[in-house]
């Protein structure tokens, strides 16, 4: 892909949460030294399991981290060169929703149950564009619903969320998020609550909107398969840190980090005979407040871990152009890598 | 515990690197048993399926129907019915697994609940080990429930938050008076926890102290405590992360091999269900669309719905995945109150003809036990 202009540049983002009692609080590094860039029209995927800090990294960009207990303690979020961390609330307000928009996992909880779909979309349009009239906004809402392939948009606009199926609700959410023609659309697990066939529809929809409007997509997901099909660039997150990043080809054909390898091998494969078996990563996702700051978060579960991993943090190093990996033992994973089919 | 160790528990930064590992391991509550550790790390390979003629039939379901009435008005006049399960038949041999996949609302969980006899089917017959269990109740049902049990989706909802793990696991055992001696009961709990890969010392804790994956292991331990022959697993890995999901899938397969259990494995993720099952049934709107061995399902899917499901399931391999044909289904699942007159799938099927709209295709064996319900495949 031809690299176009960088619109979002997250540099060394550190978002911490404080928990426990006030005198002796424990620090939870939900997002620790997190850096990524989003180019215009790019499809970026952030992959990680629950509690890995993938959502926090996105919420930080939107300025939606609740304070207290959470706070962006370090790093920069540059949107067109402007640091969002330093911005006032009013400034963020002018960017959030209109320039950077977001959709969430559960459409049924994200939509207001007592307002019709059309009203909710029109409301969003009118908040961001004060000049537009009520009727005009409504007409635009219907147009947007048509754009996300909702049949009978005029009828649907007058219906309440409960009258729509899950897939339909998520489309309405997409319509709402796209209403101001944002430059970046952050999707936090948009298809997790949906059935497989509906999931495919929604993802195709998002991808075609990206092609049509040139909106960059940041997809936060735990589903590796989804990533393989659509993404331009993939970041694998573990314990609040990016452990490996690159194109889908880098990540899936030539993974170097033990976690990435383990994760890929833990997905049951439909295209292989059952006798291929399933690999498991021992242990569980770590409790973030218990990760030792200067260590590799994966060391506890990692078969390659040495003392070095437990007291030093591996830096994110380039192993081939565009492919980065944070592991001291990335050269020792050859054997496991060759086991990939 | 020595003073130093105690201190290190609270101030992880002060201990040396080697100790750190121990601390963090305790922190994340990894099973410390080396045997358990070894088992969790190993690749779990699928055993060869038992040839069908070797083991006896344990469950026979014939034309199972479960219709829920839809009532209206003060007098609760029945105005229709939700045909959650509408004529499902299958046979399951001992030690085998039947996987049921389908989207939400397809009736897959209702099949599980009918087999469990949590629901009394509207019509049809369920034979368990030769005994007709379709309409048993009271004592007989209690006896039946000693032989088969269920593990459900949400481990946060299925464990009583106010019961210790030990009491949760022993609940069924105590009700059925299977083991009465206290020491024996404790030993049983320890054995069950070890079997599911948890540390036996966890038995005094409460569910909130565990992660989702660990709770699901406890649920499985509870199901196994009564020593059943048959387990209905209803979406047991859907709420779990990928790496934990693989652990639980591996665990279920290991237990099956060790104890010779028979499973019905219900799920919406075709790749997971297929991995665990000998045969897979694809369900849509209360009916089986296709029923075949799990390897054949991917290699030779015959029903258009199965083909769409397979094409929609992503494969984590960009080169393979981007070359696959994508069949995008349009529209949504019709309401089970008023299903289409002919084939249930005809409203979304691109091959649908006039015949499909009027005549319901039967599930027909097209060779080698590959059953499919489609006019296009079965022909005239």
Can you lay out the helices and strands and say which pair or pack?
The complex is a heterodimer of chains A (341) and B (380).
Chain A: E1 6-19, E2 26-39, E3 43-47, H1 54-62, E4 70-79, E5 82-83, H2 89-95, E6 100-103, H3 107-110, H4 117-128, H5 134-147, H6 153-157, H7 166-178, E7 184-188, H8 196-213, E8 216-221, H9 224-230, E9 233-238, E10 241-246, H10 248-253, H11 258-265, H12 307-311, E11 317-320, E12 323-325, H13 334-338
Parallel strand pairs in A: 3-8, 3-9, 6-7, 7-8
Antiparallel strand pairs in A: 1-2, 1-4, 4-5, 9-10, 10-12, 11-12
Chain B: H1 3-10, H2 17-27, H3 34-41, E1 57-72, E2 77-93, E3 97-101, H4 108-115, E4 123-128, E5 131-132, H5 139-144, E6 148-151, H6 155-158, H7 165-175, H8 182-195, H9 212-225, E7 230-234, H10 242-259, E8 262-267, H11 270-276, E9 279-284, E10 287-293, H12 294-299, H13 304-312, H14 318-323, H15 354-358, E11 364-365, E12 371-372, H16 375-378
Parallel strand pairs in B: 3-8, 3-9, 6-7, 7-8
Antiparallel strand pairs in B: 1-2, 1-4, 4-5, 9-10, 10-12, 11-12
Helix pairs in contact in B: 7-8, 7-9, 8-9
Feature tags:
heterodimer, A: 341 residues, alpha/beta, eight-stranded mixed beta sheet, four-stranded antiparallel beta sheet, 13 helices, B: 380 residues, 12 strands, globular
Structure commentary:
The complex is a heterodimer of chains A (341) and B (380). With 341 residues, chain A is of the alpha/beta class. Helices cover 33% and strands 23% of the residues of chain A. Chain B is of the alpha/beta class. Chain B has helices spanning 3-10, 17-27, 34-41, 108-115, 139-144, 155-158, 165-175, 182-195, 212-225, 242-259, 270-276, 294-299, 304-312, 318-323, 354-358, 375-378, and strands spanning 57-72, 77-93, 97-101, 123-128, 131-132, 148-151, 230-234, 262-267, 279-284, 287-293, 364-365, 371-372. In chain B, strand 7, helix 10 and strand 8 (262-267) form a beta-alpha-beta unit. Chain B is globular and about 70 Å long. The model of chain B is unreliable at 5-50 (pLDDT under 50). At the A-B interface, helix 8, helix 9, helix 10, helix 11 and helix 12 of A face helix 2, helix 3, helix 10, helix 11 and helix 12 of B.
């Amino acid at each position: 892909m031809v690299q176009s202009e960088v619109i979002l540049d997250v540099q060394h983002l550190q978002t911490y949460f404080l928990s426990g009692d006030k005198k002796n609080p424990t620090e939870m590094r939900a997002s620790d030294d997190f850096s990524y860039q989003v180019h215009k029209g790019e499809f970026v995927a952030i992959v990680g399991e629950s509690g890995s800090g993938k959502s926090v990294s996105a919420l930080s960009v939107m300025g939606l981290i609740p304070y207290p207990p959470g706070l962006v303690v370090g790093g920069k979020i540059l949107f067109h060169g402007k640091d969002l961390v330093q911005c006032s609330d009013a400034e963020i307000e002018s960017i959030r929703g209109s320039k950077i928009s977001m959709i969430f996992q559960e459409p049924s909880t994200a939509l207001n149950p007592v307002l019709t779909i059309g009203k909710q979309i029109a409301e969003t349009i009118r908040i961001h564009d004060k000049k537009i009239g009520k009727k005009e906004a409504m007409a635009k809402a219907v147009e947007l619903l048509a754009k996300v392939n909702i049949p009978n948009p005029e009828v649907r606009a007058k219906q309440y969320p409960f009258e729509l199926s899950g897939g339909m609700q998520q489309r309405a959410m997409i319509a709402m998020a796209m209403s101001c023609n944002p430059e970046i659309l952050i999707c936090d697990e948009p298809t997790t609550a949906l059935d497989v066939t509906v999931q495919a529809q929604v993802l195709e929809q998002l991808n075609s909107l990206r092609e049509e409007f040139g909106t960059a997509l940041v997809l936060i997901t735990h589903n590796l398969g989804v990533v393989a099909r659509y993404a331009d660039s993939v970041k694998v997150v573990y314990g609040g840190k990016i452990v490996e990043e690159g194109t889908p080809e880098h990540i899936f054909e030539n993974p170097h980090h033990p976690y990435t390898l383990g994760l890929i091998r833990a997905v049951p494969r439909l295209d292989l005979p059952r006798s291929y078996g399933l690999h498991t990563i021992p242990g569980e996702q770590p409790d973030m407040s218990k990760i030792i700051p200067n260590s590799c978060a994966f060391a506890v579960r990692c078969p390659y871990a040495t003392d070095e991993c437990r007291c030093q943090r591996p830096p994110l190093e380039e192993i081939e152009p565009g492919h980065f990996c944070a592991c001291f033992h990335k050269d020792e994973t050859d054997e496991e890598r060759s086991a990939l089919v | 515990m020595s003073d130093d160790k105690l201190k290190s528990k609270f101030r992880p930064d002060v201990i040396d690197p080697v100790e750190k590992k121990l601390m963090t391991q305790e922190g994340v509550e990894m099973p410390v048993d080396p045997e358990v550790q070894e088992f969790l790390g190993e690749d779990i390979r699928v055993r060869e399926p038992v040839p069908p003629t070797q083991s006896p039939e344990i469950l026979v379901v014939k034309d199972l129907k479960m219709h829920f009435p839809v009532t209206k008005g003060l007098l609760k006049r029945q105005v229709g019915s939700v045909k959650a399960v509408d004529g499902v038949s299958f046979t399951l041999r001992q030690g085998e697994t039947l996987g049921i996949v389908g989207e939400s609302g397809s009736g897959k969980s209702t099949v599980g609940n009918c087999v469990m006899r949590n629901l009394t089917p509207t019509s049809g017959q369920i034979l368990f080990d030769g005994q007709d269990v379709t309409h048993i109740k009271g004592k007989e049902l209690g006896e039946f429930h000693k032989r088969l049990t269920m593990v459900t989706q949400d481990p946060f909802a299925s464990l009583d938050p106010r019961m210790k793990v030990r009491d949760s696991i022993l609940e069924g055992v105590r009700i059925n008076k299977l083991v009465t001696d206290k020491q024996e009961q404790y030993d049983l709990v320890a054995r069950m926890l070890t079997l599911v890969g948890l540390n036996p010392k966890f038995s005094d804790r409460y569910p909130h102290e565990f992660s989702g994956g660990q709770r699901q292991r406890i649920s499985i331990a509870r199901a196994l405590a009564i020593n059943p022959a048959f387990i209905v697993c209803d979406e047991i890995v859907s709420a779990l992360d990928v790496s934990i999901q693989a652990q639980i899938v591996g665990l279920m397969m290991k237990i099956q091999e060790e104890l010779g259990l028979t499973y019905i494995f219900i799920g919406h993720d075709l790749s997971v269900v297929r991995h665990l099952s000998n045969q897979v049934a694809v369900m849509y709107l209360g009916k089986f669309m296709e029923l075949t061995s799990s390897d054949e399902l991917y290699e030779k899917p015959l029903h258009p719905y199965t083909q769409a499901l397979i094409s929609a399931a992503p494969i984590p391999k960009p080169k393979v995945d981007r070359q696959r044909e994508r069949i995008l289904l349009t529209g949504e699942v019709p309401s089970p109150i008023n299903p289409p007159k002919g084939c249930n799938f005809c409203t979304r099927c691109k091959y649908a003809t006039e015949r499909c709209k009027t005549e319901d295709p039967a599930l027909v064996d097209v060779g080698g036990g590959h059953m499919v319900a489609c006019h296009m495949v079965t022909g005239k």
